[in-house]
Every structure is written in C-alpha cells, then in structure tokens.
C-alpha cells in the first residue's frame, strides 16, 4: 500500500487475509484537506449503512452490485455522496464448481502489481454510545460474458449459461485511482468495467 498507493505509512495494519465481517484496509479521499489527498483506513468489510441500528447486520453488505447501487438502500447514499474507495489486495479467491465440488481459485495480477478493487465506504455512528464504525463494500459487475470470471461460483441449473448473473470484482488501474477517488460520478462510472482476461494470473489455490 505504501509502495503502490503512496499511503498507509503510519497506519497500524500488518497485513493479513481478510474475510467478510472482518477488519481490512481501504483507501479513500482524505477528509482533512481540500487537496487531493488519500488516506488509508482500517474498517469492517461489510458496509454499515446510515440507517442501521447496530454494526452487526442480519444481512450481507460485503458486495454491492454496481447495476443496483442507485436503488439499494444500503449503498445508494455512499454512491450519491462520492464515498468511493480502493480495496488493496495481493490476491482474492473465488469458488470454482466445474468439477462438481467447490475448488477455490486464487486470482493475482499477471504483472505482479497488487489489485486495487473498487468499493464504497461509510462511517456509522452509534447515537447512544458515540461509537464510530468505519466500513466498506466491494463492487461487483455481471460477468456472464467474461471468459474467466463466468467460470466461478456454483451455477444455477434452472438458468441458462448467459442468465447466471455470475459476478466479478471491479479493478481500478493504478493510473485511474485518483479519478476513482476524486472524480465526478460520471468519471467514476466510466471506470466500472470488467478486467481483460490477460491481466489475470489465476488457478486453483
């Protein structure tokens, strides 16, 4: 994060695997400056929306379908107010069911650079205790036509191959990070696209 994102030198994050509802790092636009300054925050993977009564949710907000973020109550405010973030990762895992059972695949970049995955964030405050919870969600995009990502996740036998709504994370390239964090909603929307298959280095974990 320090080398590629130029952020995080003074954040107490030692690096580890991150799981849903666990703590993980994300990069957002700094809120203490009028300049285009990034800040790294450690928060919960699973966005806590403004209307939540507790940070422990009974429903999943780990991923946000990009096609629905302007309608989904949990995410539309973060999208509307430009609360976009980058989730750094050396790799991510997805389940492959082509053998009839779950085989976890690991996805790295072929160029050796870390992933910068598109996400949204929110800061939630407990009105009774004043507790502040930072949290984030990871954007996903339909990948039914992607030659690699369409192979992930268990298929629904009731649906055809092009009706599965297989999902893919959204990668933001290093040169586009500032456009994603500081750009207008229109600029950010143009960056939401599937990653070319040649960028991936993937196989059974």
What does this structure look like?
- The protein is mainly beta and 205 residues long.
- It is 10% helix and 32% strand.
- It has helices at residues 2-5, 76-80, 177-182, 185-190, and strands at residues 23-29, 38-45, 63-65, 84-89, 92-96, 103-109, 115-125, 132-142, 167-169, 200-204.
- The strands form 2 sheets. It has a 5-stranded mixed beta barrel with strand order 1-2-8-7-4. The protein has a 3-stranded antiparallel sheet with strand order 5-6-10, with no helix packed on it.
- The protein starts with a helix and ends with a strand.
Fold topology:
Layout: H1 2-5, E1 23-29, E2 38-45, E3 63-65, H2 76-80, E4 84-89, E5 92-96, E6 103-109, E7 115-125, E8 132-142, E9 167-169, H3 177-182, H4 185-190, E10 200-204
Parallel strand pairs: 2-8, 3-8
Antiparallel strand pairs: 1-2, 1-4, 4-7, 5-6, 6-10, 7-8, 8-9
């Amino acid at each position: 994060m320090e080398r590629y994102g130029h952020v995080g030198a003074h954040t107490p994050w030692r690096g580890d695997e991150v799981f849903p509802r666990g703590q993980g790092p994300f990069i957002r636009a700094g809120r203490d400056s009028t300049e285009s300054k990034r800040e790294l925050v450690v928060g919960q993977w699973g966005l806590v929306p403004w209307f939540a009564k507790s940070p422990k949710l009974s429903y999943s907000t780990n991923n946000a379908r990009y096609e629905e973020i302007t309608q989904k109550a949990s995410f539309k405010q973060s999208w509307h107010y430009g609360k976009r973030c980058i989730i750094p990762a050396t790799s991510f895992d997805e389940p492959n069911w082509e053998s009839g059972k779950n085989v976890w695949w690991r996805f790295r970049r072929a160029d050796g650079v870390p992933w910068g995955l598109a996400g949204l964030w929110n800061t939630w405050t407990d009105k009774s205790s004043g507790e502040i919870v930072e949290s984030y969600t990871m954007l996903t995009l339909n990948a039914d036509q992607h030659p690699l990502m369409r192979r992930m996740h268990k298929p629904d036998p009731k649906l055809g191959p092009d009706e599965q709504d297989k999902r893919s994370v959204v990668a933001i390239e290093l040169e586009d990070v500032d456009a994603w964090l500081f750009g207008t909603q229109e600029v950010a929307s143009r960056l939401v696209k599937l990653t070319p298959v040649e960028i991936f280095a993937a196989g059974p974990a």
